[in-house]
């Protein structure tokens, strides 16, 4: 799946460019792209499986915050987030 997935291919390029620019450190851009892609899909699949929430806007924001934090921690593991 990852070899012909255009999103993963683009994400690999983005991760490599960010690594080269010193924005983040990525040891294995392909593996990191696969992990990030699947994390996003896991959250989306969970949202579909759980059905409509009491407040769909708040639920989307909560999921977006969780993904953002996960992605930030994956790309900047040594940075301490004061909100956690």
Describe this structure in words.
By secondary structure, the protein is an all-alpha fold. The protein is 68% helix and 0% strand. It has three helices and no strands. The longest helix has 22 residues, at 29-50. The chain is globular and about 45 Å long. The model has no long low-confidence stretch (mean pLDDT 86).
Looking at this protein, list some descriptive labels.
globular, 84 residues, mainly alpha
E-strand count:
0
Helix percentage range: 55-70%
The helix count comes to 3
Radius of gyration: 15 Å
Given helix and strand content, the structural type is: mainly alpha
How many angstroms separate the termini? 34 Å
Q: Note the overall shape.
A: globular
Major β-sheet profile: none
Q: Hey, roughly how much beta strand do the residues contain? A: under 5%
**pLDDT average, as an integer?**
86
Low-pLDDT residue spans:
none
- The secondary-structure element order is HHH
Question: What's the quick description here?
Answer:
By secondary structure, this protein is mainly α.
